[in-house]
Write a structure and sequence with these properties.
The protein is of the alpha+beta class. The chain is about 25% helix and about 35% strand. The chain has an 18-stranded antiparallel sheet that branches. The two termini are about 35 Å apart.
Length: about 350
């Protein structure tokens, strides 16, 4: 399949009609695929043919980079130093928590633009199935996500977010710090949704539930609200983006610190990836974690961890390795299940 398409939530969307950067279009009509970069770049693509269907067959097998060719925007020493810097900010009272991320990149074999996102998507679906998996192939934008995290869902006026904070190999790995981190982010998400919700409608139906995913466990909470009638998608995104779980608290301070400490833009990583059915007023947007994006001759992947006063720099580095290792191994052509050249 060489033309533009999207596969998300079991839907296959083809016959691209138009593309816009205007979020207000999502309050209009039609079925839209949506990708919002962490830095705020919006892509809304409307498709005419949307049906429940499995992933289409790729053109061939996936040819990824060698495991040793991945490089990290922050090496281990720089990342651990960033953790210490954030702890200094916490000690000074400027922030309670901040998410520190790094971007892994590697050259793609073959001719520029030859890599088939479907081939990578099939490999991820087999090796790392995810509740919010998505494959987006549009002019100038190629994203393959195995996200486990719901940023925003919508059913009529009911909006919901399910932030993840806290990661371990097994439930016994989760620390008091992980639970504290989750509760802080729940408060932030409640506050964000409260800006556009009907007064009194914000609730937390589930707090710090342990969810199992391939190779690791997460703490997940659910925040629900009713969107006030005077607000639409532009206001909803403005109030809640970037997602709280990948920024920190207070969000304004966390964003400033992230901008200072991270040397490369996050791109689709930590943004939003999903769909909006404007006709039925339904939607599902995932947080763009466990997410690859392809440029003409490179593949990129982001990984990070939430830093609190209780963070140990080395442990946080290894959390970013844990989150990356399985997926980097799947996207690499050969070698062991590790993030190879990320150290």
């Amino acid at each position: 399949m060489h033309d533009s398409f999207v596969h998300v939530s079991g839907y296959l969307a083809t016959q691209l009609r138009d593309v816009t950067t205007d979020l207000a279009a999502l309050d209009g009509e039609g079925w839209w695929a949506v990708v919002v970069d962490y830095e705020g770049k919006v892509t809304c693509a409307r498709f005419d043919d949307v049906r429940l269907a499995p992933l289409p067959a790729p053109r061939g097998t996936w040819r990824g980079p060698h495991p040793s060719s991945w490089r990290s925007s922050l090496d281990q020493a720089a990342y651990e130093n960033g953790v210490r810097r954030i702890r200094d900010y916490i000690e000074r009272g400027e922030v309670y928590q901040a998410n520190l991320c790094r971007v892994l990149s590697a050259p793609l074999p073959g001719e520029p633009g030859e890599a088939d996102p479907l081939a990578l998507a099939v490999r991820l679906a087999e090796g790392n199935p995810a509740p919010y998996a998505a494959t987006v192939s549009l002019p100038g934008l190629s994203v393959v996500s195995a996200s486990p995290e719901l940023y925003l869902s919508r059913d009529g006026d009911v909006i919901e977010s399910r932030p993840i904070k806290g990661t371990g190999v097994v439930a016994g790995d989760l620390l008091e710090k992980d639970y504290a981190e989750n509760v802080m982010i729940v408060d932030l998400v409640r506050n964000d949704l409260g800006r556009v919700a009907e007064v009194g409608s914000v609730s937390v139906p589930a707090l710090c539930e342990v969810e199992e995913h391939p190779g690791l466990v997460h703490l997940v909470s659910t925040v629900r609200a009713r969107l006030a009638p005077e607000f639409g998608w532009p206001e909803l995104l403005s109030a809640t983006f970037p997602p709280g779980s990948v920024t920190g608290a207070p969000k304004y301070s966390a964003l400033r610190i992230i901008n200072e400490l991270e040397p490369e833009p996050r791109g689709p990583y930590c943004g939003a990836v999903g769909w909006v059915d404007a006709d039925r007023r339904r939607a599902s947007l995932a947080v763009g974690i466990r997410t690859f994006w392809l440029s003409s001759d490179e593949i990129h992947f982001g990984t990070g961890a939430g830093i609190t006063w209780g963070s140990d720099p080395r442990r946080e580095w290894f959390e970013t390795e844990l989150k990356a290792s399985r997926l980097i191994a799947l996207a690499s052509t050969s070698g062991s299940a590790g993030s190879g050249g990320t150290a």
